[in-house]
Amino acid sequence: MSMAESDVQEQLLRQSALPPPDLLLKGIHEFNAWAFFEQHETLETAWRNEPGPVRQLYQGILQIGVAYYQIQRHNYAGAHKMFERAWQYLDPLPDICQGVDVVRFRSDAHAVQAELERLGPQHVADFNPMFFKPIRIKQAP
Question: Could you tell me the sign of the dihedral formed by the alpha carbons of 12, 31, 74, 102, in that order?
Fold first, then answer.
């Protein structure tokens, strides 16, 4: 890991320990209400306003939400594309980031992606939305 990468990782860990900002909480509330289009707008604003590496959290959640939105629209290709993009942002995050249970979120999103792929493009309309799980916020100890 280069010095620059190490500095970014250190900054990400510092930012991850901070409480969730209001826009993140609003986006999570919208996500958990299955208002995936709205959560995109909210988290895009949070992402654009945040210069630090924690913005990866906002972008990762945003893209998973857009994947879910595409599933709701029966757009297999659009959902698949958004899942593939999201992992580059979510995979490097710590287990808990600004209170978000990232481990659980990644696991839940992987389960949705696996079900989408199991159904395939011809049966995306048969997707059971009960696979959409809420994002969990963990309280600091």
Answer: positive
Q: What is the identity of the amino acid at 81?
A: K
Helix then strand count (H, E) for the chain reads 6, 2
Fold of 21-131: Hyaluronidase domain-like (1.10.3450)
Stated pTM of the model: 0.93
pLDDT along the chain (141 residues), means of 10: 75 94 97 97 96 96 98 98 97 95 98 98 97 88 46
Q: d(Cα 43, Cα 130) in Å, to the nearest integer?
A: 23
Domain boundaries, the chain: 21-131
* Element (DSSP H or E) covering residue 119: helix 102-119
Give dist(CA 141, CA 134) in Å, integer.
21
**Whether 57 contacts 89, CB under 8 Å:** yes
Q: At what angle do helices 36-49 and 22-32 cross, to 10 degrees?
A: 160
Q: Please give the pLDDT value at position 21.
A: 95
